[in-house]
Amino acid sequence: MFHKILVAIDTSEIGQHVFDEAVTLTKAVNGNLMLLHVLSPFDGTGYLNPVLLQPSSVYPTLHTEAVNKYMQQWEELKQERLNMLFSFVQKANKIGVQAEISQNLGDPGRTICEVANSWNADLILVGRRGRRGLSELFLGSVSNYVLHNASCSVLIVQGPVHNTTEGAEVCNTVSA
After folding, report:
1. How far apart are alpha carbons 62 and 55 in whole angstroms?
2. Which tens digit of pLDDT belongs to each residue from 147-158?
3. Helix (H, G, I), strand (E, B) or coil at 42
4. CA–CA separation, 39 vs 103, rounded Å?
C-alpha cells in the first residue's frame, strides 16, 4: 500500500485538481504527503527571462541594475511559490492530512524523481496537461519523464485535453 505520497504541484490549471486527488488518497490510506514544487527557469510559464542578464561592456552599470532587478524578481517568485505551497498545506491540515513541503530548483521531471527517491516515496502523483503532437514534442512532458524514470509507482492525473484543429480535421475526415 502507499504510505509516502509525493505530489508534484505547479501553477497550471490542473495543479488544484492534482492536489485534491493527492489529499483524498493520502487521507484514505492514512499516509504521509509531501508537496513538491520545482522552480525551473527553462519552463517559460511564469518564470523570469534571463535575456537581460547578458554582459554589456558599453553600459556596465545598466548590467548591474538588470542583474539586481532579476535577482529581486527571482526572490519574489520563490516566495510566491512557497506561499502557494503553504496554502495547500493549510487546506490539507483542515481535512486531517499532515503535509510537508519541498521547493527545488531544476529540471522538473528529473527533480521529481530525485526527491521521490531520496524521500523513499511509494507513489508520485503528477498532473498531465494534455499536450499532444508538436506541443508535446517541443515542450516536453514532465509526466512522461516521471512515468519512465521514477523508482516507485506513478499516478498521472489527467488535465483537460484541448482539441486542436489537427485532431478536428482527422475526425471530420473519418466521419465523412
Report:
1. 9
2. 999 999 999 998
3. coil
4. 7
